[in-house]
Amino acid sequence: MSNQFLDLITKRRTVYAIGKNVSQSPEYLTDLIQNAIKQSPSSFNSQSSRAVILFNGEHEKFWGFVADKLKSYVKDEESAAKTTAKMASFAAGFGTILFFEDQEVVKGLQAQFPSYAENFPIWAEHSTAMAQFATWTALHTEGLGASLQHYNPIVDEQVHAEWEVPTNWKLRAQLVFGSVEGESRDKDYISDLERFKVFK
């Protein structure tokens, strides 16, 4: 089966070996990222997804925050060295997108539609996931590699303070991206019989 969209998402992979050898400008990539998020669906068209886009020293500063926080969790020198190397590999990239969900939007929908109240936090997670996937795929179409990370909530307080992020924005994930500097891993798939049921 040949389908342009499926071809794109089939080739998108987690890429850990990334660098700063990017031909696109931060301005171009900002426009790309913003449009990918804007065009992502959300429940009740709530548009609850938010993002902070970091380039250059700001991007490196974020991974420095994470590295510093993780030091308090590390119990031996070997683990500390691995953690430091991992954070350095992320900082070696070109940029990071911090994905948030606006909790004021979620609460507003809960108040407006009380019969669905318990579902809106779940649907907000769906919204951010789709925004992350759309953005990741858009970056892939530009020849860039990326990996999705989850170092929230350990750096939430610093993120809000450093970049003046509203308190009602809840950090959900971090997508670090850059030039592709190494091969991505092959992806294995479980059997379709285990995963799908089709009735005709």
Structural summary, described in words:
This protein has 200 residues and is of the alpha+beta class. It has a single domain, classed as NADH Oxidase, CATH 3.40.109. It has 8 helices and 5 strands. Strands 1, 2, 3, 4 and 5 form a 5-stranded antiparallel sheet that branches. α3 packs antiparallel against α4. The chain is globular. The mean pLDDT is 95.
Overall pLDDT confidence: 95
Nearest-angstrom radius of gyration? 18 Å
What is the SS-derived class? Answer: alpha+beta
Tally the structural domains.
1
| Amino- and carboxy-terminal Cα gap | 20 Å
- The CATH superfamily turns out to be NADH Oxidase
Strand/helix succession: HEHEHHEHHEHEH
CATH topology: NADH Oxidase
Largest sheet: 5 strands, antiparallel
> How does the overall form come out from the CA principal axes?
globular
Task: Specify the CATH class.
Answer: Alpha Beta
Tell me the total number of β-strands.
5
Low-confidence stretches: none
Please name the CATH architecture: 3-Layer(aba) Sandwich
Count of alpha/pi helices: 8
The fraction of residues in strands falls at 15-25%
Helix content: 40-55%
Task: Please describe the structure with a list of short key phrases separated by commas or semicolons.
five-stranded antiparallel beta sheet, 5 strands, alpha+beta, 200 residues
Question: In a nutshell, what does this entry contain?
Answer:
Helix content is 48%, strand content 18%. With 200 residues, it is of the alpha+beta class. The protein has one domain: NADH Oxidase, CATH 3.40.109.10.
